[in-house]
Amino acid sequence: MSVLILAEHDGQHIKQSTRQAVTAAAAWQHPIHLLVAGADVSAVAAEAATIAGVAKVIKVEAPHLVHLLAEDVAAAVQQIAAEYQVIVAAHSTLGKGVLPRVAALLDVGMVSDVVEIQAPATYVRPIYAGNILATVQSSDAVQVVTVRATSFEAAANGANAEITSAAAPAAFAKVRWVSEQRNLSDRPELATANVVISGGRSLGEQFNTLLEPVAHKLNAAIGATRACVDAGFAPNDLQVGQTGTVVAPELYIAVGISGAMQHLAGIKDSKVIVAINHDPDAPIFKHADYGLVADLFKALPELNAALG
Amino acid sequence: MKIMVAVKHVVDYNIVPRVKQDGSDVEISGVKMGINPFDEIAVEEALRLKEKGIATEIVAVSIGAENSKDTLRHALAMGVDRAVLVQAEGKLQPLGVAKLLKAVAGREQPDLILLGKQAIDDDAGQAGQMLAALLGAGQGLFASEIKVNGNEIEVNREVDGGTETVALQLPAIVTADLRLNEPRFIKLPNMMMAKKKPIDVIAGTELGVDFASHLSLLNVAEPAPRKPGVILNSVAELVEKLRIEKVLA
Q1: Could you tell me if B172 lies within 8 Å of chain A, comparing CB atoms?
Q2: What share of chain B is helix, strand, coil (3-state, %, to 5)?
Q3: Per residue in A141-169, pLDDT tens?
Q4: Which has fewest Cβ within 10 Å: A65, A281, B110, B194?
């Protein structure tokens, strides 16, 4: 028996979260296969085949897979699922859409957002917005699991896996992709960045002008609080928190962020947390490794200058 | 168009949950409970579709113990037309919930099923997708905007790195994200009236589906606390500390 991982990619490259899922999947000590679905993914499949620990890459190509709709991807997984004991994906938009669908089609339960695999069917996962960690055991014959990518190291290159092809199931006729709006940025991806600098609502219209230069110097991803996003100062996909993106960088810098429970849930696995806030009583200081009580409109330019 | 909305009775979002002394579960006895906030957004969306003249009837459905009636009353007070409780005791998991919801959908024949994107207790985020799979329907997850065009619904959804729009043929499943709307405030008279409205109760065991749990909870624990932090005096000091921590390049 083997482990199947639903690979995530942008059409050009494998995403970091897939490499992290490979590390997670090693816990089962079975051969690891990657499913790469898309319209024209030979290059992606070739890259996937080099990830250390990967035994086989299954390429599923079809013109209708140019935009990966969960309904179509779930069908592609389902058609080969009988060969697998474990089906894994990162807990990303794609994984969250596809794997519950796969589990229901296979009539098995599912375990979401796993942060630790203790034994082949025993998992630790956060509940109640990360305030509690639950250890759960699954009794299903097929384990369907999404993993919190940042809880696992990314697998490096080192394999030369076989690449095979499987036919794509017919397009799911009841769903049609219409359009997308990607917030293109040359910054690292928020979920997997080594450094994240986030701003709160108090940055206002200066959100970008204040954060960008510092983020550029730190090669950091930019994040925002829900309040900041709701106020329209930052786009939705920058929201950090339990209901936004969960981050776990080496360095997290919270600027003008008071530290609401939802936000803290999304950053608590960061290695070093820095808080800059003018209010010394802000809850964020209780969770930060280093706090600076300062006016962010002065401190950010100062930080920018100090970083050279 | 008929809408079914699934609502879950959960620990109130303002409560910081505590672990039972023996670590066997989260302490929820005596804790304030309420409607799952994402489900409340789903209810609000259904109401708005009715106010626009698109929806004709809204049925709220909850799966759980007797106390789930409180959450159904909340939905009734917001303005849904009917409420159904599928009584099922014990630990329920998303697959079982999805199967029970499918059975209710078989009776109600809704054109659109709305749910929250996840429940704030188990944070699983599976029920909507599983229900869509079981019904062979399309799924519009993490919706931040819904437009109905005849037999098709256009859903703007929040995805990693931006937003995406998909068109789903009805009947379809849509799960609500935070920015779909702001749920209305319930006026006291509406709450009082909702107390008198009947709630249909169906025993889960009558629906002929296996909703047994596939997952057992071994224990729960609070995450390890972080070591106490240090308050610094200047940006220069901060940069120095970060260099010592080797987190600055």
Answers
A1: yes
A2: 30, 30, 35
A3: 999 999 999 899 999 999 999 999 999 99
A4: A281
Nearest to A288 among B133, B158, B229 (CB): B229
CA A153 to chain centre: 13
DSSP for A218-287, written as a single string: HTPEEEE-HHHHHTTSS-GGGBBSTTSB----SEEEEES----HHHHHTTTT-SEEEEEES-TT-THHHH
Contact at CB, A109 and B168, closer than 8 angstroms: no
Residues of chain A with confidence (pLDDT) below 50: none
Give B-chain residues touching A134 at CB under 8 angstroms: 217, 219-220
* Token output for A300: 């950010």
- Residues in A touching B232 (Cβ below 8 Å): 290-292
Tens-place pLDDT, residues A187-208: 888 988 999 999 999 999 999 9
Q: pLDDT tens-digit profile of B190-199?
A: 999 999 999 9
What would the pLDDT profile of B100-117 be if each residue is shown by its tens digit? Answer: 999 999 999 999 999 999
Question: In chain B, what's the furthest Cα-to-Cα distance?
Answer: 68
What is the dihedral angle through the alpha carbons of B114, B55, A172, A149, rounded to the nearest 10 degrees? -20
Predicted local distance difference test score (pLDDT) of residue B249: 65
CA separation for the pair A185, A300 (Å, rounded): 21
pTM, full prediction: 0.95
Kindly provide the b/e burial profile for residues A221-238, where b requires at least 16 CB atoms within 10 angstroms of the residue's own CB.
bbbbbbbbbbbebbbbbb
CB-facing half-sphere around the CA of A133: CA atoms within 13 A: 15
The residue of chain A with its CA nearest to that of B15 is: A128
